[in-house]
Specification:
This protein has 173 residues and is of the alpha+beta class. The protein is built from 4 helices and 4 strands. It has a 4-stranded antiparallel sheet with strand order 1-2-3-4, covered by helices on one side. β3 and β4 form a beta hairpin. The chain is rod-shaped and about 140 Å long. The relative contact order is 0.08.
Length: 173
C-alpha cells in the first residue's frame, strides 16, 4: 500500500490522467445506459398503454371476459349439437319409393310401396294398391329394419332403395 502512495506522490499528473480517463469511460457508460433505459421505458410505456391508449390491465381484463364469453358459447353450442345428434337418430330421414302395377288390368304404375325409417331402422312401410274397383292401403311397422309381418317384393325393394339413398347428396333447386 505504501508503494502505491509513493508512486502517486512521484507522478500526480499521471494519476490525474488515469482518473480522468476512468471518469470519461464511466461517463460514456452512464450515457449509453441512459439512452438504453429511455428506449426500454418508451417500449414498456407503449405496451402498457396499448394501441388505442388503453391500459394493459384493461386490455387483459377485456380479453379474459371475451374469452370466457366464447367459452360459454362453445359449451352451449356443444350441448345443442349433442342434443341434435341424439334427436337425428330418431328422425325419419330415409325414404324409398317403388311404383308398380299391382293388378294386370290397371297400368300406369299407380300402386306404390314406400319405406320411411330412421338411423336405427325404425319406421314404417306404406303400401297402396290401386285397382279398378278401389284402392287399398297397408302399413307395416319397421323395428331395427325388420317387420313382424311378411313384406312383399315391392316393400323390400322400397327398403333397399331407401338404404341405397343414404349417401346421396341433397338435391338443390
Amino acid at each position: 500500500m505504501t508503494s502505491l502512495l509513493e508512486q502517486l506522490n512521484k507522478s500526480p499528473g499521471a494519476m490525474v490522467a488515469v482518473l480522468l480517463a476512468a471518469v470519461l469511460v464511466l461517463g460514456a457508460l452512464v450515457g449509453y445506459l441512459a439512452v438504453s433505459h429511455g428506449r426500454q421505458s418508451k417500449a414498456w410505456s407503449s405496451l402498457l398503454t396499448g394501441s388505442q391508449g388503453a391500459n394493459l390491465e384493461d386490455l387483459l381484463r377485456r380479453h379474459f371476459e371475451d374469452r370466457q364469453h366464447l367459452t360459454d358459447q362453445l359449451a352451449d353450442a356443444t350441448e345443442r349439437i349433442n342434443v341434435l345428434e341424439r334427436k337425428i337418430k330418431s328422425a325419419k330421414r330415409y325414404a324409398g319409393l317403388v311404383r308398380y302395377d299391382a293388378f294386370e288390368e290397371i297400368g300406369g304404375s299407380q300402386s306404390f310401396a314406400m319405406a320411411i325409417y330412421d338411423e336405427e331402422g325404425n319406421g314404417v312401410v306404406l303400401t297402396s294398391q290401386v285397382g279398378r274397383e278401389g284402392g287399398r292401403v297397408y302399413g307395416k311397422a319397421l323395428v331395427n329394419g325388420k317387420s313382424d309381418r311378411n313384406l312383399s317384393v315391392e316393400e323390400e325393394s322400397a327398403i333397399k332403395h331407401a338404404t341405397n339413398q343414404r349417401a346421396q347428396p341433397r338435391i338443390s333447386p
